[in-house]
Structures are given as structure tokens and as C-alpha cells.
Amino acid sequence: MLDFRPIEKLLPLAKKNGVGIIIAEPLAQGFLTDKYKQGHSFSKTDIRSGYDAIALRTKIERSQYFQFLANESRTLNVAALAYVLDRDEVSTCIPGAKSVEQLRSNVSASEARLTNDDLTKIVEIQQKWLQS
Known about the structure:
Elements: H1 5-8, H2 10-16, E1 21-24, H3 53-64, H4 76-85, E2 90-94, H5 100-108, H6 116-131
Parallel strand pairs: 1-2
């Protein structure tokens, strides 16, 4: 959801050619887990510590736009995985899991569905980013 550029070119090309896509980092390195807020700093051994302050702020800020997807029946990370898995061109995705709880949450995304309204709002958000 944060890096949506492949949707415009890569996924239609894959569909046209009958190629399945495996999505790596569907949770945007954890930014779509609702775990990180402005001011968060990563340890020097964390790959995300390589982002400059503007990129880090942008990723956290943009992830907050998708809070509307979280509700009593799903978390933001489940919604993000459902978003990826809902695409016909996507064969599977590779989310990370550091605990059994995270693994269970990831698995539950295979049953989750986003509404047409949810998908419309996601596209509207992404289109605003293209214009800025």
C-alpha cells in the first residue's frame, strides 16, 4: 500500500503474460503494522535505520492514512496483507513474523476481505501522493 507503483505497470504486465507475483515485504518493513509512530528510532543494526529523517517520517506518516482499515475484526497488518492477496496477479506474499502471534495474524489475512469502499479509499490516498 505504501509503495503502490508496481500496481500501475508491473501487475498488469504480469497478468497479461500469465506470470504470478510474489510480494516481498507486504507490510512495508513493519510500517503497516501500526507499531511505529513519529519519533521512533531504529537501532543501528536495523536496516530501517538507514532511512534519512524525511523518508522515515514519510513512511510513518503515510502508514497512518490507512488506520481506517483497522477495526474490531482486523488489524492494519491483516488489512495490508488482504490488500496484497486480493490481487489476481499476486500468487503469494512473504510477511515476516517474529512470534507465533504475528504468524497467526498473518495467516488470518488469507480469510480477510476489504470492501469496495476500502479499496476506493486506498486508491484515493495513493493518487493524492502521486500528485504531491
